[in-house]
Write a structure and sequence with these properties.
alpha/beta; Rossmann fold; 6-stranded mixed β-sheet
Length: 253
């Protein structure tokens, strides 16, 4: 039977970013706004985030050649591209891949709530804070921003592209926390409550690995089976600190 899916898909959240650090500082100080000079798309890895990316790259490069990624896709955000390129550059020459950027893997867009802490949202946009309570994060769409459903819509298209172009390949995706969760929602056919419960149980770890493997035993076109989620052994083995730093826009997420 023809397999429509890749042999393996790894979905990785980028390493800790300077935005993660700035958000923590803003929360600690009780500020309404997060002090980030760049656009969110331009926020780089922090030094710790680079260390985490190096550790994960070493783990991927130590896999047998037949088990290493041969396709690497990334969000256009700088921190995701840096993480992906770090992994690619550590792979053996024969396996080293050009990182393909796809805008459908970008971070959830926060619109008018961009760069605001929870306090900032409640003070500056109390109506949006109330709408979010009523609708829940899955359906709430801030002005000029996206809901989780909007992210899921573009990721369904992304997965169609992956199944069309990368069937039987080993695909590494580097993106963001919401992207990891929404990918799980689609691939595992979860409900709103199921994916929100996973979200409530803890943040996706920086450079944590979510891995799916092909299940050719399914009747139509094969399928994907979750092998591991939030896998952090590569960081622990390398002595890199494990962080589940919240995104800079966590209050709006």
């Amino acid at each position: 039977m023809k397999q429509n899916w890749p042999k393996q898909i790894w979905i990785v959240r980028h390493g800790e970013s300077a935005g993660n650090v700035a958000r923590d500082a803003a929360d600690f100080a009780g500020h309404a706004r997060i002090d980030i000079a760049e656009r969110d798309v331009d926020v780089p890895l922090s030094p710790l985030g680079q260390q985490q990316s190096d550790a994960l790259a070493a783990w991927f490069s130590a896999l047998p050649l037949s088990e290493q990624p041969n396709v690497i896709l990334a969000s256009p955000y700088r921190r995701a591209v840096q993480t992906a390129k770090t992994i690619s550059e550590k792979l053996p020459g024969a396996q080293r891949q050009v990182v393909s950027v796809d805008e459908r893997l970008r971070e959830k867009e926060f619109g008018v709530l961009d760069r605001l802490t929870r306090r900032g949202i409640e003070e500056l946009h109390p109506d949006q804070a109330e709408f979010r309570k009523i609708l829940g994060k899955f359906y709430h769409r801030p002005p000029a921003g996206e809901s989780w459903c909007d992210v899921i819509l573009r990721l369904r298209s992304m997965l169609d592209t992956i199944s069309l172009h990368y069937a039987d390949q080993r695909v590494l995706i580097v993106a963001h926390q919401v992207v990891v969760l929404c990918m799980r929602y689609i691939i595992e056919n979860l409900t709103e409550e199921q994916i929100l419960q996973i979200d409530r149980e803890g943040d996706v770890v920086n450079c944590g690995v979510t891995e799916y493997v092909a299940n050719s035993g399914k009747d139509v076109g094969g399928g994907l089976v979750l092998k591991r989620y939030n896998f952090v052994a590569p960081l622990i083995e390398a002595g890199a600190p494990v962080t589940a730093q919240k995104d800079a826009n966590v209050a709006a997420r």
